[in-house]
Design a protein that fits this description.
By secondary structure, the protein is α/β, with parallel strands linked by helices. The protein folds into two domains: 147 residues, Quinone Oxidoreductase, Chain A, domain 1; 139 residues, Quinone Oxidoreductase, Chain A, domain 1 (Alpha-Beta Complex), CATH 3.90.180. Strands 3, 5, 6, 7, 8, 15 and 16 form a seven-stranded mixed β-sheet that branches. A six-stranded parallel β-sheet has the order 11-10-9-12-13-14, sandwiched between helices. A three-stranded antiparallel β-sheet has the order 2-1-4, with no helix packed on it. A hairpin with a 4-residue loop joins strand 1 and strand 2. Helix 2 crosses helix 3. The longest helix has 13 residues. The protein is globular and about 60 Å long. 45% of the residues are buried.
């Protein structure tokens, strides 16, 4: 079968398409025919530590397709089922998926839409529900709302009854997101957004902040937070990995700061939230309350072009790689 691999020397990475043997499922895995897989920026950023220098590994982190073989211990799934979820080696014709991660694909979704969900929406679920404890009627503020994580967070927060404020450097992207439910879009090339957030929230501030940008906006995010607000640190596309913390604000406003990353988590730890995701979010996806936003779908042989499109930062939502014909 065809499968994409990535090799890094610690400074740069090379991607090549290989012909390898089709894997066989272990007792707790299913083998799927991959129909679509989503691109995730972090997989291609060497600084995230997902690729050790000198090592080559299969790439692709989530997929949608149908089951073609089941391990001996599989229950509740069968050959022919359409499923989606996080898995390794998703940029391949076939991939193995742990049954703990597998979710049945709602009939309303195309494989391309389903492939835009797993990794990004599980991260968002962690930020918004598991750790963020979002309640209906609260304000969510998302610097970098037009990113893949930002858009997904906006869609989930709106479906859960929150009001969402976001920033972007592109007014065009913000206008499109307003049509999808964004309550206020702030077009800015700087970290100055405190006054607009406070005005939009009647002086209250944001109850949940999702920082997809990094250290350059961290201090301003703290300023824009409400009493007993929470801040999720999820990305640093600005490359700024340090920031000052206003300890007086942290103390007086009883703020909660937390990170969201799967880098150090075991497969069991990563899968622990999947049942809650199935219960709370999958029905909202199935009934159309949450519709994954797919910006572009590239043919399987065009991964390099798909990656380049993602790194240009012109897309809105997810970029997806189609399966082989």
């Amino acid at each position: 079968m065809k499968s994409y691999w990535m090799k890094s020397d610690g400074k740069s990475a090379e991607i090549d398409l290989r012909e390898i043997d089709q894997p066989k499922p272990g007792e707790n895995h299913v083998l799927i025919r991959v129909r679509a897989s989503g691109l995730n920026r972090g997989e291609f950023i060497l600084g995230h530590g997902l690729h050790k220098a000198g090592d080559a590994k299969q790439i692709g982190m989530d997929a949608a397709g149908e089951i073609v073989a089941c391990g001996a211990a599989i229950k509740g799934l069968k050959v022919g089922d359409r499923i989606f979820g996080r898995c390794s080696g998703a940029f391949s014709e076939f991939a193995l998926m742990d049954q703990r991660e597998a979710m049945l694909m709602p009939a309303s979704l195309t494989p391309e839409q389903a492939a835009a969900i797993p990794l990004t929406f599980h991260v968002v679920f962690d930020m918004v529900v598991t750790q963020g404890q979002l309640k209906a009627g609260e304000y969510v503020f998302i610097p970098g709302v037009s990113s893949g994580v930002g858009v997904s967070a906006m869609l989930m927060a709106k479906a859960l009854g929150a009001k969402v404020i976001g920033t972007s450097r592109s007014q065009e992207k913000l206008d499109r997101l307003v049509d999808l439910g964004l309550d206020l879009g702030i077009c800015t090339h700087s970290s100055h957004f405190h006054d607009q957030v406070m005005q939009a929230t009647d002086g209250r501030g944001a109850d949940l902040v999702i920082n997809t940008v990094g250290g350059s906006v961290f201090a301003e995010c703290i300023r824009a937070m409400a009493f007993q607000a929470r801040l999720a640190m999820v990305g640093y596309v600005d490359g700024v990995l340090s920031a000052e913390i206003d300890l007086a604000a942290l103390h007086a406003k009883r703020l909660t700061l937390f990170g969201v990353s799967n880098k150090l988590r075991s497969p069991l730890q990563r899968s622990e939230s999947v049942p809650a995701f199935r219960e709370k979010i999958l029905p909202l996806i199935a009934n159309g309350s949450i519709i994954p936003l797919v910006d572009q779908v590239f043919p399987f042989e065009k991964l390099d072009e798909a990656r380049a499109a993602m790194e240009c930062n012109q897309h809105l939502g997810k970029i997806v790689l189609a399966g082989t014909p």
